[in-house]
Amino acid sequence: MIEAILGLQRFMLRLLSRVDAPLMLALSAIMAVSLLVQFSAGDDSMRAVFAQGARFLLGAVALLLLANTSPSNLRTWTPWVYFGTLSLMPLVFLFGSGRSANLWLDLGVFYLQPGELLKLSVPMMLAWYLNRQTLPPTWKTLFVSAAIVGIPVLLIVKQPDFGTGMLVLASGGFALFLAGLQWRRILIFVGTAAAAIPVGYQFLMPYQKDRINVFLNPESAPQGAGWNIIQSKIAIGSGGMTGKGWGQSTQASLDFLPEHTTDFAFSVFSEEWGWLGVLAVMLIYLFIISRSMWMAMNAKDSYSRLLAGTLALTFFIYIFVNGGMVAGLLPVVGVPMPLISYGGTSAVSLLAGFGLIMSAYSHRKYLAN
Amino acid sequence: MARAIKNPYFEADLFRRRGFLALLGVMALLGLLLFGYFSLQVLHYNQYLDQANSNRVKLKPTMPARGLIYDRNGMLLADNVSAYRLELTPERIDDIEATVKQLSALIEITADDMRRFERARISSRRFLPVTLKLRLSESEVARFAVNQFRFPGVEVVPYLTRRYVYDDMFAHVIGYVARLDEADLKAMGDERYAVLSHTGKTGIERAYEERLRGTIGYEEVETNARGRSLGVLKRHISEAGTDLRLAIDVNLQKATREAFGEMTGSAVAVDPQTGQILAMVSLPSFNANLFINGISTKDYVALSTDPSQPLFNRNVRGGTPPGSTIKPFVALAGLESGMRKPEDTVYSSGEFFIPGQRRGYRDSHRGGHGTVNLYSSISESVNTYYYKLAMDMGIEKFDAYMRRYGFGQPTGIDLIGEISGILPNPEWKQKRFKQPWYTGETVIAGIGQGYWVVTPLQLAQGVASLANGGRRIPLRLVRDTRTGLNQPWKPLPLPEASSIGATVDQLKAIQTGMEATMNTRRGTGWAIAQGAPYRIAGKTGTVQKISRKGNVSLDPKSLPLHLRHQALFIGYAPAEAPKIAVVVVVEHGGYGASSAGPIARKMMDAYLLPKSEKPAQVLGEVAATGGADD
């Protein structure tokens, strides 16, 4: 009996030994912030807190499992994972549900957002592919990489989920950058992308054009599309240096601020905790990214490095896009504040991503390439 | 294609360098983001805090009770009574038209009501109640109460409304309040006043609007994004309007009204020592209560098309040539200018000629009055004396004196819209008619005819200065104010009185002449003063606007106002210590000043005599036998 308990304990400790303590601590701090925000922003506070907590728990289990999975195994499974998640996408078009776009698959027990899974599987596939090529990548490597990233992005944007599509696209870019893409080629791509903006604008959905126009001039539609930005800026600005205090957000509790548990959750946090709160959260985020990047650098093969580094930088993009959007510094794109905004698939896939990063780091000693 | 050899060390190094670069980029962008938040939260903190507060806190005004109006003895003239109005909340009603239709079976809803309701509904948010009908009758309230369950979203709400206790008696003094319109709101310059719903439109109600209105209180109400109120954060109590106590005496006002009987015209009684207005009547009048909650189209058309113009305030906006009532003032000008002494005589032959002209200017007696001095010129109203005096004086000088006595300018009474009247002179005529001035016009100006226009108020102010020793006193309706039921009354500061310039002796001569008018057998007011236990000083006058021939039997009320004959009387009493000065103007077609004088007498009686001593009986006979005039 005692043996069994001790055995279980040893097993648990072994599982936990793969978890990076500093990173886990920082992630927990962010998750705690999320629960605080959900408690004060939600209309049905406790329910929101429990639901978010349950997702974190689920995400933590995923993190634990992935951290204990050896990168060599992961690498072997990667093509299967990639094509598996990619094949879920057409199902969305057939059976998807959602308010403004068909992003979710109703699995009976919970909703699954295949776009979220692609945020993991695309970097995995790209890392898998680049690992097999000599680096820095050649033109042929670039072309294949573009296909690996481009097909899922097109499908996601078609859903339409512009935000997720851009995040996946960005993760592709980061992978290539970390793989050592030559500066000259980077310049060519950036230049071409900049030139394509006016052309690309023509292909945007009307609501996306509206968002950009509203971003450029929110006062043009104070009751319409500009309302969200204006109210969010009021929420953030009125928080001041030290904030109104936990649970004292007037903008959210009086419903001036829309989507205050999801996309605009960080506005509520800024209103209640002020600039100092924002600074603290940003420093934690920075620690998470830096630690992840350091772990990536110390991974033992290109697959692990590229996967971990790409996930770390994509995590940053979430922060930058959402933080900039709610403060009116960037156009409104449906990107949540990572781990803080209310949302199931996102929380789980983000934590799973950190599981991958930890796996890359904790298995460094056993990997000889 | 030949595969290049993979170099793990090189790739790891490459990754490390790129990773550091990326981290630098992350830090830079996070710094930028933090600066963006710093700008919002620290640099522009106040701006956004204000916006958050104005988002959250809406001011909900609360209505103050309008100030009450009393007469000089504390009789309530205008008060606030509770009434009930019918309100609909559009958000809670599925089919408004059907609901209104069902309601109209219980409650009378006029087309006017519907029009106002539709207009208010458009400009109001759906969850705010909109008034369908004000001032429900008791039976309407009862009928609705029984059926209320059938009408979700419809409510009977109590509110305070104005009530004029004496209906039409003070319509031209107090005026009335009526529903606030867009223009009123604009003039007030604050949208929050919309809650008042009523504002003073005429009379005291308008002139003292700002005091009567009080201070609107407000509640700071926390509202959500849809404007629904969630609770009161702070209350600023509304302050009731200031109460006003008028100088008017209800009894005197009533007596004046009764003295007019069916006749139309106007009358003013003032305290000659203080300028306080004791009574002010303009007839016919109208029921001021009709206007408060929206007068019906039918009532309004009836009032506004009546040839007797009941809505017209004759004292403030009505003008008439003064006729012979101007003579005491002209006589005073003669004394002041040194052109006449009281005992200087003039011979009245019955007709006066300007040298070199053939047209004669007549006296009221066919054969003339014979030799008259200043005293008898007043008491017998001898035109020739004044023709000559005016001609000798010349229009410029004449005009200057008349202006000093207060004619040709507003008296400054505490009402809005007072006219200046017309003090005729060559410049005025040139401007108005583009014609030169003729001496004949100076001559008839001397007896208060021609272009002259005076208001009853100007005459009242004038006769008060004759009575009080030459002080031109501002006329005042409101005597004192108080800011609450438990507060003491505080007198309103009076504007300074000015001197008309005459000496005591000069005034004494005029007063003697006016006393002779009432107290000597040949005096034109002899009959009026009969039986009065106090001594009266006065002057009668008649103005004929169109020839009396053939019009004698004409009903005066069918004539337009400006063509009606006017019988005038000015006077004061007791002569030795004046307590009341009176001006009466009667519009009529057939009688002489006998109609105006007796009204003035009844007013003096009402004010000066204890109630039991009123010799009302005697007066009736006097009026019947009277007739000596001009």
Number of strands of chain B: 23
Shape estimate of chain A: globular
Q: Specify the oligomeric state.
A: heterodimer
Radius of gyration of chain A equals: 21 Å
Terminal Cα span of chain A: 42 Å
- Approximately what portion of the residues of chain B adopt beta-strand conformation? 15-25%
Largest interface: A-B, 51 and 45 residues
Span of the ends, CA to CA of chain B: 136 Å
Q: What does the main sheet of chain B amount to? A: 7 strands, mixed
Q: What is the strand arrangement across the widest sheet of chain A?
A: 1-2
Q: Residue-averaged pLDDT of chain B, rounded?
A: 85
Overall tally of structural domains of chain A: 1
Predict the CATH topology of the largest domain in chain B: Beta-lactamase
Describe the global form of chain B: elongated
- Rg for CA atoms of chain B: 36 Å
Helical content of chain A (DSSP H or I, runs of 4+): over 70%
Structure description:
The complex is a heterodimer of chains A (369) and B (630). Chain A is mainly alpha-helical and 369 residues long. Chain A has helices at 2-17, 21-41, 45-67, 71-95, 114-131, 139-158, 162-178, 183-202, 206-216, 226-239, 250-253, 265-297, 302-326, 344-362; strands at residues 105-106, 111-112. In chain A, a hairpin with a 4-residue loop joins strand 1 and strand 2. The two termini of chain A are 42 Å apart. Chain B has 630 residues and is α+β, with helices and mostly antiparallel strands. Chain B has 2 domains: 59-246, Alpha-Beta Complex (Penicillin-binding protein 2a (Domain 2)); 251-285 and 319-478 and 503-608, Beta-lactamase (3-Layer(aba) Sandwich), CATH 3.40.710.10. Helix content of chain B is 37%, strand content 20%. Chain B is built from 23 helices and 23 strands. In chain B, the strands form 7 sheets. In chain B, strands 2, 3, 4, 5, 10, 18 and 19 form a 7-stranded mixed sheet that branches. In chain B, strands 12-11-23-22-21 form a 5-stranded antiparallel sheet, with helices on both faces. In chain B, strand 8 (217-223) and strand 9 (229-236) form a beta hairpin. Chains A and B meet through helix 7, helix 10, helix 12 and helix 13 of A and helix 1 and helix 2 of B.
